Amino acid sequence: DLIASPTSGAALALVARLRLQAASPLFNGGDAARKYFGSFTRCTDGVHYISQTYDERKWAIAAAAAKKVIDMGRYQLHTVPADNYTVELPKNVPSEPFPYGAGGIDPYRSYSEMFTGETLPSTNQELIWGNSQFVSDHMDYVFPLGYGGASSISVPQRMVDAFYMVDGRDINNSSVDYPYENSPYDKNCIVQEKKILSLNYTLQAGTYKAYANREPRFYANIGFTNTLWTMSSCSEGGKNNIAVQYYKGGNCGKDKSTNNVYNLTGYTCKKFIHPRDAKTGTGARIISKTFPIIRYAEILLSYAEALNNLTQAYEIDGQTYTRDTEAIKYYFNQIRYRAGIPGLTADDLITVEAFNKVVQRERLIELFWEGQRYYDIRRWGIVEDLEREPLMGLNVEQAEWEGFYQPTVIQYKSIIERDFKPKMVWLPLHLDEIRKVSVLDQNPGWDK
User: N or C: which terminal CB in the chain sees fewer CB atoms within 10 Å?
Assistant: First the structure.
């Protein structure tokens, strides 16, 4: 498995990831560093483990580390050429050839096929480092009840709501051309006719309208009620081409569970599901696929974030780094255009704080289910605020038009009883390691 063997590019990309963490508020004298690590000092000499003094140059070092990967010229975002199935882009999306616009590519397949297994890792120039060992367990968790899975991977409502509309607008500020319609008790709030979005991406007639007019990454990532699971490797009738329903009485709802394991929110992760993937029935098979440990999109996002946080120029290894908004737009917008949505606006870049919010949301969407969010919300110092919010999802206790589409606080015992403590910003060191070295300090909040 060559892609699992780290290369020089993987090494530099890992350095870029670590440099970005080191520049971030949790580790670089920000409010989070003082809040969580203000008294975390070495027992031998009282020196702080985590810097309590902000050093802006660390952002320049992070930018330089990401730029080294970019300048290798070895990697580029994965794209698939447009074909007869590719839908017309909204008028506000630049039509110039990629990477200067979204022209000439299919946004759905360009994003999704590097995860589904359709694109081989050896031909995916975006994949810097990957692993193919995660597939089996993941499929068990996301596949629908009754079709070989536990349906237990449940995506919260706030994640679903983070995805943009197809014209790049927020769901709370949608346009007349691409409205966000959300009437949870109205049986008429449904898509009236089937709409082909791309090859293997179809919006079924009867789908709740809140899931219409959304950006391509929404459909590549999120499984919602009436999403079609083709499971086409299975040739057995009744076990393929299933429109999955998570509401009470639906074909994969809570009442289909025999062990109190079911989908809690009405949404699941569909990111790594190939159209041929099936777990039950004649001919059922799972397509081999690769989990991206590091991919080029992360490097572009890291470079843009690092540049944004500079207020002056720094020279690193002969190159100068500053808050160059044109450079930020060029590298960041490639990710937007690959997803078929508009690039940055002047308001997005008007202040450092404004763009930090934009890049945080972009990382949430683009890197969904790739293991980055856990670390991102810690390094930004926002984990405690987010964990204090109640987790919301659709009301899986109700039938479709009796309240299912009305977001509600999840009442599952392990969810409502969760209690985030500040010490959870870091995991504890294993006691076996602590016992080996008497002067080794345990991470703050954990017993030594």
Answer: N
Residues 6+ apart with CB under 8 A from 150: 140, 141, 143, 261, 262
Report d(CA 50, CA 29) in Å as an integer.
8
Q: What is the pLDDT of residue 185?
A: 98
pLDDT in tens, 396-405: 999 999 999 9
Cα angle value 413/221/282 (rounded, 5°):
90
The whole-number average pLDDT for the span 234-263 is 95
* Rounded CA separation 76/128 (Å): 10
**Burial profile 290-324: b = 16 or more Cβ within 10 angstroms, e = fewer:** bbbbbbbbbbbbbbbbbbbbbeeebebeeeebebe
- What phi, psi does 117 have (nearest 5°)? 100, -5
SS3 content of the chain, % helix, strand, coil (to 5): 35, 10, 50
pLDDT interval class at 11 (50, 70, 90): very high
Query: DSSP letters along 90-103, please?
Result: PTTS--SBTTSSSB
What pTM value is reported for the model? Answer: 0.97
Burial call 29-60: b when 16+ CB within 10 Å, e when fewer = bbebbbebbeebbeeeeeebebeeeeeeebbb
Contacts with 112 (C-beta within 8 Å, 6 or more apart), sequence order: 118, 201, 216, 220, 271
Q: How many residues does the chain have?
A: 448
Spell out the alpha helix ranges (H) of 367-409: 373-379, 383-388
Examine the pLDDT at 2 and tell me if it is beyond 80. Answer: no
